[in-house]
Amino acid sequence: MSFLDGRPPRVIAHRGLAIDAPENTLLAFARALTAGATHLETDIHASADGVAVIAHDPDLSRVAGRSVQVAQLTMSELRRIDLGHGQGFCSLAEALDAFPQARFNIDVKDARATAPAVEVIRAARATDRVLITSFSPERRKAVTNGLPGVASSPAVSEFVPVLLGAKTGVGSAVHRALRGFVAVQVPERRGPLRIVTRRTVQRIHDAGAEVHVWTVNEPGDMIRLLDLGVDGIVTDRCDILRRIVDSRR
User: Fold this and answer.
1) Is residue 149 a contact partner of residue 179, using CB atoms and an 8 Å limit?
2) Nearest CA to 42 among 3, 83, 85, 91?
3) Which tens digits make up the pLDDT trace of 122-149?
4) 39-46 and 52-54 as β-strands: parallel, antiparallel, unpaired?
């Protein structure tokens, strides 16, 4: 298995499927896979005892109503936090073990999580089925350097040369900037700037990489982006995207 096995489009479940399950939990991931997600998107921080824990936010205020940082609690304490539906926080190791055939798109949110993430992914022999990304090039590189051959996508600052090359038609610049990356994962727009266009998608494809767009929840937007040729959509509603993808086939 490799992260990009199978033909696109990729149905990438943003923090799982959190309709009747808390986000980023084993239940949300199970629901997403049952609904037909091809990939699970998730995020990692580090617990107080240095475990790579699956969590989007650095604190528990939004998901658990508690004014405490993820980094202040041990993994054992985090597991006991009631997130609803009988779910607590889970570690990256637990998620990889619970879904041994699933492919995980992992956003590294905490520098302290880089070393434990490398250790866990190696131990699970999951290098081929994960993609590593981060808003920080340093965090991304800290993990990818420890996992030779792992799939990755560029951080925002690393994507800027790709976008400039694509917009100006300088294909060689796009090729250089995407060396070592298998995909770019971007929003459709950033303020007034339209990032995803038919031209940028084609330039990135010419450089041998896929285009994944986040976070798209409206069916009309999904259809429009698929018509532009994007290879994957990160969505809170993988159930809807799955039906659209199947109907187009």
Assistant:
1) no
2) 91
3) 999 999 999 999 999 999 999 999 999 9
4) antiparallel
**Cβ–Cβ < 8 Å for 47, 81:** no
Could you tell me the two tokens for 64? Answer: 């658990």
DSSP state of 107: E
Annotation says 175 is catalytic? no
Q: What is the pLDDT of residue 119?
A: 98
- Candidates 49, 57, 19; CA nearest to 35 is 19
| Placement of tokens 């929003």 in the chain | 187
Pick the catalytic residue from 45, 56, 85, 205: 56
Contacts of 131-138 with C-beta under 8 Å, sequence gap 24+, read 131/3, 131/39, 131/103, 131/104, 131/105, 131/106, 131/182, 131/183, 132/106, 132/108, 133/105, 133/106, 133/107, 133/108, 133/185, 134/107, 134/108, 134/109, 135/107, 135/109, 136/108, 136/111, 138/111
Least Cα distance to 195 among 230, 170, 247 occurs for 230
Catalytic residue selected from 14, 39, 45, 212: 14
How many residues in total does the chain contain? 249
| Mean pLDDT for the stretch of residues 148-170 | 94
Q: Domains of the chain (ranges plus CATH)?
A: 10-152+215-248 (3.20.20.190)
Q: Is 56 a catalytic residue?
A: yes
Residue-wise pLDDT tens digits, 28-82: 999 999 999 999 999 999 999 999 999 999 999 999 999 999 999 999 999 999 9
Banded pLDDT at 192 (limits 50, 70, 90): very high
Residue 152 binned pLDDT confidence (cut-offs 50, 70, 90): very high
Give the pLDDT of residue 169: 87
